[in-house]
Fold each of these.
Amino acid sequence: MADGNSETKSSNQMWGGRFASGPDAIMEEINASIGFDKKLYAQDIRGSIAHATMLAHQGIISTEDKDKIVHGLNTILSEIESGAFEFSRRLEDIHMNIEARLATLIGPAAGRLHTARSRNDQVALDFRLWVKEELQRTEKALTALIAAFLDRAEEHADTVMPGFTHLQTAQPVTFGHHCMAYVEMFGRDRSRVRHAIEHMDESPIGAAALAGTGFPIDRHMTAKALGFAGPTRNSIDTVSDRDFALEFLSMASITATHLSRLAEEIVIWSTPQFGFIRLSDAFSTGSSIMPQKKNPDAAELVRAKTGRINGSLVALLTVMKGLPLAYSKDMQEDKEQVFDAAESLELAIAAMTGMVRDVTIRTDRMKAAAGSGYSTATDLADWLVREAGLPFRDAHHVTGRAVALAEQKSCDLADLSLADLQSIHADITDKVFDVLTVEASVASRTSFGGTAPNEVRKQIAWWRARN
Ligand code: ARG
């Protein structure tokens, strides 16, 4: 576009300053989606080949025209993949860019491709295919992340660390158990991915503009050719539905939220104050001014990407919430949100998988922390219930007094003498010291899903059979 003063003058005086020409340029800029929907080229071509093949099979177009169309589309595919294809903003979107090029390549037969379809069902198809493939990639990525956690859990089934509630030391747990908590979270995410694939597994093509078509098309045939379980059942819903994109973004937001919680733990645990983990050089950076520093940048960025992904979900929900049936151009705004969230999510999962595999676990620091903060106080209370027959509420009170005494003496519970403990409750015997160690504490938590190493190993085996 020329950029001359005379043209600038002819644009709108109030708001046309930045436009080279009049309102047409503005219309083109707001209207065009080719800048981002070119990402859908492979899906668009695949959909068009399936559509043309069906049209010929049904006798709606000739086999000769179909062959020309398919050949032309394959040529365009290689042109785009080699970088030779010239995208034009004037042609608005990927659908019209490809169709215009097809006309140049094969002549009038190109005009028959759009029989019995509209860009409304075409874009619904292309985008659905893309989201479905992205969900399949996400499923694989989550499986790799779960595998990384299973390996670390196995390796550290016996490694004790403090368990936290309110980020205050609560009770000793094992690091293997903590890892398996994330396996549960990412396992749920993966099943959300699988459900989303099932929900969206219907082919939109053939819904046409919104009402279907009078041509004798076979929507079951195109659905099958494109790998869908079947065609959608309502043409109005088909062109106005973006639930598959919303489900992708919902799943992505929940997964990102899990990744962010993990990122937060990595940030906290890698501080000198906690010192539970040492990040590998591969996933940290130095400071340009403070030579001693090793920063958890990758974890911080994963935490931040979550904000971005959640933003995309809210953006698309907001785009959709006021739309009457059926298609409205507002829906063109669906793609950038999904593309951006998909890129962020893929990167975040990959970075996290790398960090989980590479991180050094400082078992000495974890163990030392596990024993501090009176983490076995519950074990003392449980012992009083079991061995001295106290009601739990009384045992809780007695234990509280023992903690206060230990605090006063600046020592741990296990360091109190038997005489100290008996001064609080006469029925305490030296057997109590068996339960005051962190190892005894975790080994005793044998309830289903509990932190005892053998229980954790059972859960690892259950997941290994499903990963
Ligand atoms: N670029 C459009 C989109 O992404 C394609 C569908 C346009 N349909 C229409 N009737 N203008 O939604």
Amino acid sequence: MNLVIVGFGVVGQGLVEILRDKAPVLEAQFGFRPRIVAVATRTRGTLFHPGGLKPDHLLAAISAGSLDHYPNEPGLVRGLPALTLIRESNANVLVEASITDLKTAQPALDYCHAALETEKHVVLANKGPVALAYNELQAKARENGRLLRFEATVMAGTPSIRLALDALAGCTIQEARGILNGTTNYMLTQMESGMTYADALAQAQALGYAEADPTADVDGWDAASKAMILAAMLFGKSLTLDSMEVRGISSLTPDDIEAARAAGERWKLIARVTPDGATVGPVRLPVDNPLANVSGSMNAITYTTDLLGDVTLVGAGAGRLQTGFGLLSDLLEIHAMARGISAH
Ligand code: HSE
């Protein structure tokens, strides 16, 4: 498997770190030995080497500020545009880990189309294209016999997507609801212990949980984008941000938080998705409600099903390795399917 990685921020670096550190295990257990043939960033350079780039050098270069610090070697090409790398390199999988844009999903949406048109699989941590264009991308993936995977977009690597699509296949899912934003859950937990809103947000940013523009987190848009992904995937419904009722946590005051605490309750930012639509907003939950005890950057999702009743999954919702793992889990699925197909 040859990867072109677009976006080399917290998440892209997390994936490369995992691929470096787990290389022996991944090869021994799964025969999985991916090569990173290209990495593209918006402002910090691009690199291409058909024989594979070295994870250590990639991580050292970006830590030093730019891919320009990657050492020269024969066969290395610098500066090709992302779209050229996607269309023309020897990659067969696009890993889209660039910044989420919830208005246009661009430029990532064009990258996904280009990859599928040139018969590459697409794996995303970027929520924009999945939230805004799920149906058209899935249709194009099917037309071209390629896979579109996006486990990392909802609850980082915690298998919220795989649970619904694979493990619960055969059940009818009637509703999904949960805590789908790590930044705000982390902030609410810290604010319950007396931290200010500004300090809690600064910490969530320092820990790599927040979006590039954290208003997406605190105003509820990030959770809303995940609700859009779930609505499309579970119910075939294309929602728009304008059509949803979305409220965040920025209007919650220390007094609101204290009042809830005194009443034995906690504020949580809850997203709810049904076949009729989706909502996001802060809800006061009694502390004996399981969702009230999901704290810090943890997330949770409950699927209501016809055959099993409620099934709840709790796990990491954001973070470098946690989201990097979401990408890895999709790459491993593609690898397993490719091996399965070639075995016949
Ligand atoms: N900013 C997002 C969050 C990252 O805090 O949940 C994961 O999608």
